[in-house]
Design brief:
single chain, alpha/beta, 5 helices, 17% strand
Length: 111
């Protein structure tokens, strides 16, 4: 299934709050990592078939340079609540599913 890895700038509550749509998702705190741009985060997502969810432009740039896997869902939201992040991911579930299934796509920007 579609599993997400939420970066440090997003709430660690999100994997639980979205478990109905994205079961077994993780936050990088769950895997003892902090820095989003840490290459270990990229490798962990790649090795574990996780899509990275990030608001970080560095992650966006990395995705453009390296391609997939892992796929990156880039949230263009600025300062926002956990609820807003949750709502965007729920509202775009169908788009995320298509993105997940299309091997040619590396980056999905949501706002």
């Amino acid at each position: 299934g579609m599993r997400l890895l939420f970066d440090e700038n997003l709430s660690p509550k999100l994997p639980n709050r979205l478990s109905d749509l994205f079961p077994d998702s993780l936050h990088i705190r769950d895997v003892d990592m902090k820095a989003t741009i840490d290459p270990r985060v990229w490798d962990f997502a790649k090795d574990n078939n996780l899509m990275i969810v990030s608001k970080d432009a560095d992650m966006h740039d990395l995705s453009l340079v390296l391609g997939n896997p892992p796929k990156v869902i880039w949230l263009r939201l600025g300062n926002c609540s956990t609820r807003q992040v949750e709502d965007v991911l729920r509202r775009n579930f169908d788009a995320i599913k298509l993105f997940y299934e299309d091997e040619s796509l590396s980056l999905l920007a949501l706002s």
